[in-house]
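Comment thread on ticket #2218

A.B. wrote:
> Attaching the input chain for the structure job we discussed in standup.
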Amino acid sequence: MSTSSARRQRKWSQHVTESSDALDLRHGIFDKSPQAIARSLKSSAEHSKRRKSAPFRSAMSMLDFYINRAGKSLSATRRARLGKAKNALRKAFGKPTIAGE
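C.D. wrote:
> Ran it. Output below, let me know if you need it in another format.
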């Protein structure tokens, strides 16, 4: 595999995050507080004209996508913050929260 080919394969998730048909996200949103992440994802999901499903599903899908793509490189602190963001997002959409997240 060539170097440029390997680079493209590693960067596909960044491309999806930046140009997804699901949502238009603000740069650096996943580095904020759980409440700020939830507010931004909710706002983006509600205002997006390109999403393919309900706002809650689109917002949660993007958050899950980010968590899953970060994988093992995600620190325990950031993983916990993103878990709290999931509950904050559920709360923002009036959905029941999940204990332990």
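A.B. wrote:
> Thanks. Noting for the ticket: The radius of gyration is 14 Å.
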